[in-house]
Amino acid sequence: MTNPTRTTAPAGTSSPKETDAKFKRRFMMRLVGVFIGGMFLDGYILGIIGPVTGPMRSELQLDALSLGLIAAGPLAGIFVGSPLAGWATDKFGRKPMFLVDMGLFLAASAAQFFVTSGDGAVIQLAIIRFFMGVAIGGEYSIGGPLLSEFSPPKLRGRLLGLTLIAWYVGFMVAFIVGTALHDSGTPWRIVIGTSTIIAFVLFIARLGLPESPSWLITKGRREEALAITRKYVESPEMQDSITEEINLRVIQEAQAAKNKTEIKGASFGMLFSRQNWRTTLFTSGFWFCAVTPYFAIATFADDVLHQFGFGGGWAGGVGLSALAAAGVVTTVLLIDKLGRRVLTVPGQWLCAGILLVIGVWADAPAILVLALFLAFSFFNAGYTTMTQVYPAEVFPGHLRGIGMGFAAAFSRVGAALGTFALPWAISNIGMGASMVVAAGVALLGAILSQWLAPETKGRTLAEISSDFSH
C-alpha cells in the first residue's frame, strides 16, 4: 500500500528539488556570464580604437598630444572609477551599482556615434573615453566582489580568473572586428561604437539579478540574506559560509553594543586601520608590481626586442601576447587544484631573475633574450591572474568593494609609470639598466608576496577575512 501523503513526479518531469537545483545552476551561469561579459567589454573598448587610429588622425587632424589624450582617457577613468565605484558598491549595494555601471558603459558607448568633426572633437572623445574608463574601473570593484560572494569555494578562483581570459579575448576580438570593419570602409565612429551592442545586451542581462547576501549581512539585513541564499545558492559550502558570516556579524554587533560603539561603514581610512593595513598593502603592492613591468615591455615590445636583435610582429607584440594568454589559461586551470601561493610567489621570483639576466648580460645571444622575454610574459601573466582573485577574497565583506577598487586604482599608477617611463629610461639610462629597474620592481613584488600572500584555496570568505584581518 502506498503512502497517501507522498507525491511522485509524473514520468518525464522534474521533482521540485531538481527544478530548484536547475534554477540555481542557471542563475550561477548567468551571473558568471554577465561578469565575464563585462570584462570582455572592458578589453573590447580598449582594443577597438587601435585599428581606426589612422582614419581618426586623418579626419580630426590629431597630433601626438591629442592622440595620447584620447588614448589616456580610459586609464584616467579607471584610476577614478575603481575606488569611487568600490565605495559606492559597499555603501549602496552590489546589485544597483552593477546595473548603473553597465548603464554608464551603454551611454558612453552610444555617445561615440555622435562625436563631431570640429575643434571640440578631441575633447569630446577624451571625455567619452574617460567615462568608459570609469565604467571599466567599476567592473573591477563591483563585479569581482559580487561574483566572489556567490561562488563556491572550490570554484571561486577559477571563476574569478576567467575574467582575465575574457579581457584578453575581448581585446583580440576588438582588433579583429575593428580591422575587418575598417577594411570594408566602415566609418570609424561606427567601428568604435560597436561596443554599444555588447553593452546593451549585458545591461538587459543584468536586470533582475539579486543582491549579494554578504553585503546584506554587513547592513544587518540577515533575513533578506537568508532568503536570497535559499533561493539562489546551491553549494552547501556557500550556504555554510553565509551562515558563518551572519554569526560573525552577530558577534560584532554584540561587542559594539557592549562597548557602546557603532560598527563603521566602508571608508578609505579603514583600509589602513590596524585590522586591514596588511590586506591593503599586499593587494595594492602585489598588483602594482605585477603590471608595471608587463605594461612597459608589452607596450613597446618591438622597440625593446629590436635593441636586443629582434623585431617584427610575431616576435614582439603577438608573441608576448600569445604567451601571456597561455599563462592566464594555465593558471585558471590550476588555481583551485594547486592553490594561490604556489602560483603567485615562485613566478615573481622567477620573473625578477629573468629581467635581471636580460639587464646585466649585455652580450647574451639574441635567441636567448627572446626566449627569456617570452618566459617572462608567460609567468608574469600567470601570477597577474591573481590580481583578479586575491582582492575579491581577502578583504572583509564591508570593505570588499572599496578595497578592490583602491587596489585596482593603485595598479593603474604602476601601469602608467611602466608605459610612460620606459621610453625615457631607454633614452637616458639605457636598455640594460631599464631592465634592471624592472627586475627591481618584480623583486619587490616577490618579497611582498612571500611575506603576505595567504593560501585561500577552498576556504570560505568568512574564514579568509577573519584570518587575514587581525
TrEMBL record:
Gene3D superfamilies: MFS general substrate transporter like domains. It comes from the Bacteria. It holds the Pfam family Sugar_tr. Keywords: Membrane, Transmembrane, Transmembrane helix. The chain crosses the membrane at residues 31-52, 64-85, 97-115, 121-147, 159-182, 188-209, 280-301, 313-335, 342-361, 367-390, 402-426, 432-453. Residues 31-457 form the Major facilitator superfamily (MFS) profile domain. GO terms for molecular function: carbohydrate:proton symporter activity. SUPFAM superfamilies: MFS general substrate transporter (SSF103473). It is found in: Cell membrane. It is a multi-pass membrane protein. Its main location: membrane. GO terms for cellular component: plasma membrane. The keyword Membrane applies. The keyword DNA damage does not apply. InterPro entries: MFS_dom, MFS_sugar_transport-like, MFS_Sugar_Transporters, MFS_trans_sf, Sugar_transporter_CS. Belongs to the major facilitator superfamily. Sugar transporter (TC 2.A.1.1) family. This is MFS transporter.
